[in-house]
Amino acid sequence: MTKKLINSRPKVVNVGVDTFGDSVKAAGSDSVQVDWRPPAQGDAELINILLALEEYHDEIGKANEKAVEKVLAAQPVWIDVGPALDVIPGFTPDTVLHAGPPVTWEDMCGPMKGAVIGALIFEGRAKDKDEAVALAASGTLKFSPCHHFNAVGPMSGVITASMPVIVVENKTDGNLAYSNFNSEKNRKALSFGAFDQDVQDILIWQRDVMGPMLGKAVREMGGIDLKAITARALQMGDECHNRHVASTSLLLREMMPTLARLDLPREQLAELADYMLHNDWFFLNFSMAACKATMDSGHGVPMSTMVTAMARNGVKVGIRVSGLGEKWFTAPAPPIRGLMFPPFTEKDANPDMGDSTITETCGIGAFAMAAAPAMVKLVGGTVAEAIGFTKTMADITIAENKAYTIPTLDFLGTPTGIDIRKVVDTGILPKINTGIAHRQPGYGIVGAGITEIPMECFVAALKAMYQSI
Amino acid sequence: MTKKLINSRPKVVNVGVDTFGDSVKAAGSDSVQVDWRPPAQGDAELINILLALEEYHDEIGKANEKAVEKVLAAQPVWIDVGPALDVIPGFTPDTVLHAGPPVTWEDMCGPMKGAVIGALIFEGRAKDKDEAVALAASGTLKFSPCHHFNAVGPMSGVITASMPVIVVENKTDGNLAYSNFNSEKNRKALSFGAFDQDVQDILIWQRDVMGPMLGKAVREMGGIDLKAITARALQMGDECHNRHVASTSLLLREMMPTLARLDLPREQLAELADYMLHNDWFFLNFSMAACKATMDSGHGVPMSTMVTAMARNGVKVGIRVSGLGEKWFTAPAPPIRGLMFPPFTEKDANPDMGDSTITETCGIGAFAMAAAPAMVKLVGGTVAEAIGFTKTMADITIAENKAYTIPTLDFLGTPTGIDIRKVVDTGILPKINTGIAHRQPGYGIVGAGITEIPMECFVAALKAMYQSI
């Protein structure tokens, strides 16, 4: 019954108790009982909204078809590297991007504040934590979600003016997306809220050495096809959100001939190779920028109920929907079930944070967990559960991405394009896998695990869609 | 019943018809019907040998335990590179190693002859094909299986004096093993019997540039742990016989910092990076040398029925058994079921060839196909069959290798150490996956597929074991 509600105009809505359905069926009417779940968890208001939207079944269906076709047709290619100030339109020296929906300095969680402190010290705007806190609270800075600048950043997502950023072009539509470079070589990483000298050294090296070197190489190569790397990595045990061993290795292997031929000091090349050897998350930010360029191309289709962004700032989770403009539909950020790195425990854990859920929005990450069963060693759970995630997510998505296939599931394509109607109807929440930041500034990563985007976001979006029609 | 025959002294041997077993069981006796297969395919002589060997059940069991423990404890580390003449003990300028059991020049198959021709031209011993053929037929050269020199080579397995070879040490026991470098960047590869100028160029570059460069790097690094790379690659979609995308990428990534710091011309490093980028089989020869070092350590245990080598020369297949010394037990090389590369068809295909089955002997390759379901695109068959191979091979092996686990099968260890008794008893033949060479010299690879090591080898070995006791 749950599926029928969205896929066609139902004859009888049977909520929960299947004996009623049986009696309808026995009488020769049209009733199918799929599972025990009542539509919209039995919420009468939501059932009425879902039924009302059924009046626009064909229009919404066509809009979603158009939106998801854009997503499937996208061809994200990494084309350039440059300082955020130079390459991201609208960026100013005072701009401070952060992950998730909008949040003020005062309301930011600990690790996001830690990352802002680290970034301000790196930018030379503050000489220590106290100066950075004072500047952040002064009203001088322009805080903004990364998403408002076509950008994405993992965890805190903090991007400031002189950080080098990855520039990705969706060659199909020409739209651009951006991400910073991964700072997660050590557990005390800027993205997770650490800001000590080791973090500063990585930021300085990324700005002065790695960024210019990779920019030179990628321009020399005429771009690198991130969709091709992602497709291969999904056949090599990566799910491209929290496992990037294959993609990072493939990226290095692809760039190495060009890097070796550049007129670079030997030691700088060795430093880059070292950094990529010891950071298995290196490709994460490329994956995210590729997914952002992809999902942006499916955004803005009137009547479409497809989710085009899911992001968390450590306090709130927000989603955006293709047919609902720039509005965020938010809920409190949930805790994460997972494995903590000793000596840390769950009481140290910040709630869910980061733009990296753009990967799940795009049908990979936890949606492709069946491709990466070894991940259960990082995030907990069983192999059967990991494989189950991919199958379950098919119930709330619009299409199967035939470019991203999972060999173990007989080359099933990844479930792509979350439909807010299906989430509300089935009660199945989008799964995400994620790192866990310490709730205080200065610590870094303390674990990894699994969580879900809260129902509240989808309910709010569904109501907005109903009101907009 | 089949398992019982080997694992304990059976009370009643029930061949085939289970109603007889039922009646025994109903009478309160000890009888178990596992499946329909009659032991040893119902061959009375073999059943008698199996039963006779049961008298030595404990001794053989202990010997196999000891042999497989050596295999599981082995730590193959790549330690050096040097010309075959310098690093392989007993090698002379006239030595020509080849794959599989012994074979004379006259009896060699087309692609093996092609590789010998190519090697003699490369060595400067012949200026063209005719001179090479004359030299090969003259009796001057010393042809020998690679295995007789603790070496292994894929397909033709031809190794001559000035070819650089990979030196692997099993750090647990100190024994060494060798392989040449992979020549399979192009379909027309020496190992598959091609010998034209492109092949010569690769051999010259490997001797003059790649070999010395990699030797310098690996010595500088103090060795590279091939067991660790194999273990990671098995979690990344490789089965480490015919899929090496992950292992090749991991190897390059691990060596790159050291390679970048060596005092080498920029262009040479770029050439190496290019070669490793465009040859997804690069790690094959490392995998083989690692497996050879591993299996040699389990060889020579008196009474052990564990297979320590399986190898094919394109005419015959041979196996060696731990407790049966240096003797080869042979059978005609079988054809291969698989996918041919157009325009080639099955009539172009040479029978099974190469030492690369040392990987299956060691429990990876087709034995680990569940780790590499994407391989069905290369070798044919279904994902379910690929996963089934790993499960079935557990029925003819002694141990589970907990260092080599398969995430999709809930981290099951690879099935390791083939027991000739189990093969004969169950009728289950060891699966292998392999490339297919053109049957004429000069062509190269024309397909890839699946085959099995023939029963005849195991029957001959079992009879020899029986006679030796």
Give a written overview of the molecule.
The structure is a homodimer of 469-residue chains. In chain A, the strands form five sheets. The first copy, chain A, has a five-stranded mixed sheet with strand order 4-6-5-1-7. The first copy, chain A, has three domains: 68 residues, no CATH class; 213 residues, Enterococcus faecalis V583 domain (Enterococcus faecalis V583 fold, Alpha-Beta Complex), CATH 3.90.1710; 168 residues, v583 domain like (v583 fold, Alpha-Beta Complex). About 6% of the residues of chain A have low confidence. In chain A, a hairpin with a 2-residue loop joins strand 8 and strand 9. Chain A is built from 17 helices and 16 strands. Chain A is 40% helix and 19% strand. In chain A, helix 3 packs across helix 17, helix 6 packs across helix 7 and helix 6 crosses helix 8. Chain A is globular, with a radius of gyration of 22 Å. Chain A has 469 residues and is α+β, with helices and mostly antiparallel strands. The interface between A and B is large, with 38 and 39 residues.
Give a summary of the structure in a few sentences.
By secondary structure, the first copy, chain A, is α+β, with helices and mostly antiparallel strands.
Which protein chains are joined by the largest interface, and how many residues does each one contribute? A-B, 38 and 39 residues
Whole-angstrom Rg of chain A: 22 Å
The amount of beta strand of chain A, in percent, is 15-25%
CATH third-tier fold name of the largest domain in chain A: Enterococcus faecalis V583 fold
Give the total of domains of chain A: 3
* Poorly predicted residue ranges of chain A: 8-34
